[in-house]
Amino acid sequence: MPNNRRGLFIILLLLLGLFLGLTAVRQTQLFKKKAALADTATLTFAPLSPTTYSPGNSFPVTVRLNTNTQSISGSDILTSFNADQLSLTGITINPTGDTNLNSTSATFAPVTSTGTFDLLRVINCANNGGSSGCPSGRGVAEFGFVRFNWGANAPTAAYSTNGSTVDVATFTFQVKSTAPAGTNPIKFVFTSLSSTTDSNVTAATTVEDILAAPTSQLNITISSTAPTPTPTLPPGGTFTLTAIEDTYVDSGSPSSNYGSSGVLGVDASPTTKISFLKFDLRNLSNTTITSAKLRLTVSQATNSDSTSTQSVKFISNSSWSESTLTYSNSTSYPLGTVLATNPGGTLGETKLIDITSSVSANRGNYYSVGLDQTDIDGLDIYSSEATCPTAIPSCRPALVISTSSTSFPPGDADHDGDVDLGDLGLWARDYGLSISPANFNSDSTVNGLDYLIWRTNFLPAPSPPTTPTPTTTGPTPTRTPTPTPTPSGPTPTPPPVGSVYRSHTNDSYWNVPMPANAPIDIHSSTYITDSQTSSENLDYLGLTAAPDALQDFGYPIYWATASDPTYNYNYTYIDPVTNNPVTVTIPYRIPLGAKPASGSDGALIVYDRGWNQVIEMWKAVYNSTSNSWSYASFKHYVLDSNGLAFGVTGYTTVLNFGHRGIPPPARAIRVDEVQAGAINHRLECFWWATGTNYANHYWPMSGDEGAKGGIVPEGIVARIKPSVNLSTKGLTPPALVIARALQTYGCTVGDNTGAGNRVQLELNKTAWQNLGLTFSALSSIPWSDYEFIQGGYDPVTGTIRQ
């Protein structure tokens, strides 16, 4: 090669080297953060079988970590996936026996666009940080984020797996109902907080760094076969809806899955077998269901028949999958309320079990039920995977549903023919969901537009006079089942004519008697001693607002009608799904001339059966000039609900709130109940002073007043012992009615008096005088005749609730 060419070649090599060097530096800078995010730890997965799922299926992905030689003081695990196909429904921390893993401080908090951490966030690659970090065709990427704080409870300041692999978290995904078929790569990235701070994890760096960083990837396939949709029939039809998923679990093989089995087992011995069935009711959101029966067929195989009774129970969480459910993970899908029972069955027998009310209440959603039993003679029924015998071509589980031709007005979510507060409750329950009977305009979700439809069609009350002029004794009732009181107290409006009214469902905690063998609290005798020695030296339960006592307290009770003025209460609650505040306006009616109690509590209770609600005010004040009410607190409960407050285990509507979980109907004994001779629900006890020595409070209460100087916790139930013969106590007829309620249902300790243990009466002095009731009417029943039920005991389920 000539020298001039050799020189030119050397210059070109030098320039190329310089360019490559600069490029290497630039590349190092560009991917420095990515390398830090990747770290040197490795992520793997527990075996996942199957790897193909249909729309509606849920499946878990257990992530395993090996830190190799690293010692880590904290770390993050992030996941990304195609949000067009999947939803991330939850994350569970799995320490798997490694005592160094401080799982108590691990949290589920996906990344938000501001770099903070929230419950769930969908990040669009193109709108957050540019599209260069998004794989081709990816569209929307959804990110889950788990932070682990290792070392806080560990023997050393840092955490290491010491070369072994541990299960650290299980991510639960659900295939969306609209998911297109194809492969979905689920990616996981491990990042050590010792080298990457939280401030680096923003929307932009998530897109640019997380997706581009070295990852552990799991590929799952979305099947093109979606579940058979619920048929849409003309009104008034009858059709059969087969189960979209079914399986059973067995305590004898807790890790085994029986999703492909041709039978479903139900048994209690020698092992526990529980069957699960799921149905798709989404296309029935606007259908009136007049009948729904669960059809099950007993297998013809030997010993499949049973003489035992099986319970059909509602399962509120339908995210389980027949392909992954086992006895070990079935605790995430607990069986709830008993819907019906089945008295066993013979070989090949087809059973029709009526569960109409439950199916109707859950139309518009996926719907799950479970079968269990307590006896030892197990039952086997055909599953959806069964090959039906020739003689029984329809052997697989199904719902036989009949519908009505009735049409309903806009805003009527519960299809009872009226637009009322029950429909508002369904709207609040399903806010943010796409499939719901409260999605009145059939757009993408239940939202504010649906609320406007409800509010527009809600039956308004007539406008009241601008400045009402109530009389000194209150309005004159047109019906008088209770005697007209004197001006010493307010004049309540009369309850509706007919049998005595009881609010809430028959299976409500407040309406189910305490069984004679209910468990007794271990501190019962201590609480009885407290009652005997600290309750103003009264060895009995007093009656507040009795005619021979002060009339400052007690509860004025009114019954609203269509002619009464309407007012509004703005109620804000935190949505349990989105964790966002939601505000709804609750209209309520109060009769003209209604008066709160004259004492410092200023209490007032108003039943409104037309609007399916009862309200209570504390420190209520009426302004006649502006025709408005003010109050220190406002309580609201739906009359046909189960009476449990929003947030309490077992609640059914977000519209139940107030007084830490005790609804107004439990707070006062009504005159008409005693006149009718029966109080068929639990009452509230007002204690001289509650305490937190043994518990802050018990279910069904959601809170308490703290330590008030006593020892009895709020939420516990006191009752007259079942062994006490009330007929020997010399009680007057009205006192006997109250005593029977205290023996049958008991009273829940829920408030403080500062002056003796009491139950409260409706404020109506004349009515109680006419009945002959006095403050000391229960004095012949000393505290030694009482006992305390174990705190948190639920007579509906027979369990201790938390």
Question: How many strands, which pairing sense, and closed or not: the largest β-sheet?
Answer: 7 strands, mixed
Sheet/helix structural class: alpha+beta
What oligomeric state do these chains adopt?
single chain
How would the global form be characterised?
Answer: globular
Straight-line N-to-C gap: 89 Å
What is the C-alpha radius of gyration, as a whole number of Å?
A: 32 Å
How many beta-strand segments?
38
- Give unreliable regions as ranges: 8-39, 95-143, 147-158, 192-213, 225-234, 460-491
How many helices does DSSP assign?
9
- Average per-residue pLDDT, rounded, comes to 75
The count of domains is 3
Percentage of β-strand residues: 25-35%
Roughly how much helix do the residues carry, as a percent range?
Answer: 10-25%
Please characterize this protein's 3D structure:
- The chain has 802 residues and is of the alpha+beta class.
- It has three domains: 37-222, Immunoglobulin-like (Sandwich), CATH 2.60.40.680; 237-404, Jelly Rolls (Sandwich); 523-800, no CATH class.
- Helices cover 13% and strands 26% of the residues.
- It contains nine helices and 38 strands.
- Strands 2, 4, 6, 7, 8, 10 and 11 form a seven-stranded mixed beta sheet that branches. A five-stranded antiparallel beta sheet has the order 13-15-20-17-18, with no helix packed on it. A four-stranded antiparallel beta sheet has the order 1-3-9-5, with no helix packed on it.
- Strand 27 and strand 28 form a beta hairpin.
- The longest helix is centred in the first third of the chain and has 36 residues, at 3-38.
- Residues 238-387 form the Carbohydrate-binding module family domain.
- One of its GO terms (biological process) is polysaccharide catabolic process.
- It comes from Candidatus Amesbacteria bacterium RIFCSPLOWO2_01_FULL_48_25.
- Residues 478-497 have a biased composition (Pro residues).
- This is Carbohydrate-binding module family 96 domain-containing protein.
